[in-house]
Design goal:
The protein has 241 residues and is an alpha+beta fold. The protein contains seven helices and twelve strands. The protein starts with a helix and ends in a 5-residue tail after the last strand.
Length: 241
C-alpha cells in the first residue's frame, strides 16, 4: 500500500467513528499526508477542515504543492456524498475519501456542482443559512448580497453570531414592531444559546425558506414556533418601498 494512504488509514482508524481530514502535499516529489483539525460540531457526520491548518501548510509549501484534500467515511461507503461534492466544487483540488475499516478508496476531481435551493445538505463553509439567503436573492431578485467573513468554528458562531452586527453593512434595516411583513423579509432567529444565530427568508404563502444546521434546506410554514424564536426581522433597503 502507498505510504501516505497507510498513514491516512491509521489516523482514521484511531479517530473512528469521527471523520478525519487533511491535505496531500507534494514535498520534493513525494506525496505526504498532513493531518488537519476537523472543526465540525458533529465530526461523526461531517468534516470542516481547519482554515488555520490549511493556511499554515499553504504558507510553508505553497498552494501549488497542495495536491489534494483527504477525509474519511468511517461508517459509510467511500463514495462522495452530495455535501462532499458541494464543498469540492469550491476547492479546485483532487479529493480522496477512504473508509478505513474496509480500506475502500474513492477519489475525484471536482467539477462545477449546482444544486437546487431545496434539499441541499448543510456544510459550514458553503451551504449554510446565510449562503441560502444569498443565493435566493440572486436567483429571485438579481441582488448580490455580500458574503461576511465568518469564524472557522461553527460552535463559536452558534453562541457569537454576527448577524446583528453585520446586517446593516449587508444593506438591510430592522423592521419596526408595527411594520407588516413583506416577501423577502428575513427573520433572525435563535436556534440555540441566547443569540440570533439563524437567518431565513419569507416566501409566498407564509412559507419560510431556510437551512438549519444538520438538516437539508427546506420550506416550512412561518408558524407560531418560528415566530416565537424570531428576535428581529430585517428587510433589504432596496425593497423597502
Amino acid at each position: 500500500m502507498i505510504y501516505w494512504k497507510k498513514k491516512v488509514i491509521e489516523d482514521a482508524l484511531q479517530e473512528s467513528p469521527k471523520e478525519i481530514c487533511g491535505l496531500l502535499v507534494n514535498i520534493k516529489g513525494k506525496l505526504v499526508y498532513k493531518k488537519c483539525k476537523n472543526l465540525a460540531q458533529i465530526p461523526t457526520d461531517q468534516f470542516i477542515l481547519s482554515p488555520t491548518d490549511y493556511a499554515a501548510i499553504e504558507d510553508q509549501y505553497g498552494n501549488e504543492a497542495i495536491e489534494g484534500i483527504v477525509h474519511s467515511h468511517p461508517t459509510t461507503s467511500a463514495y462522495a456524498s452530495p455535501a462532499d461534492r458541494v464543498s469540492a466544487a469550491r476547492t479546485n483540488k483532487h479529493w480522496y475519501i477512504v473508509n478505513p475499516h474496509t480500506e475502500e478508496w474513492y477519489d475525484f476531481v471536482p467539477k462545477e456542482y449546482k444544486q437546487s435551493l431545496l434539499g441541499r445538505p448543510w456544510t459550514w463553509e458553503y451551504t449554510n443559512c446565510w449562503q441560502l439567503v444569498r443565493e435566493f436573492y440572486k436567483a429571485e431578485l438579481n441582488i448580490n448580497l455580500i458574503d461576511f467573513e465568518k469564524p472557522e468554528d461553527p460552535e463559536y458562531f452558534a453562541f457569537n453570531p454576527m448577524f446583528e452586527d453585520c446586517y446593516e453593512k449587508g444593506g438591510f434595516r430592522s423592521l419596526e414592531d408595527d411594520e407588516p411583513l413583506k416577501l423577502y423579509d428575513c427573520p433572525l432567529m435563535n436556534f440555540s444559546g441566547d443569540k440570533l444565530n439563524h437567518i431565513a427568508v419569507l416566501c409566498e404563502n407564509n412559507m419560510l425558506l431556510h437551512h438549519p444546521q444538520g438538516r437539508l434546506s427546506c420550506k416550512e410554514e412561518y408558524n407560531r414556533y418560528y415566530r416565537s424564536i424570531t428576535g428581529k426581522i430585517i428587510r433589504y433597503v432596496g425593497l423597502s418601498s
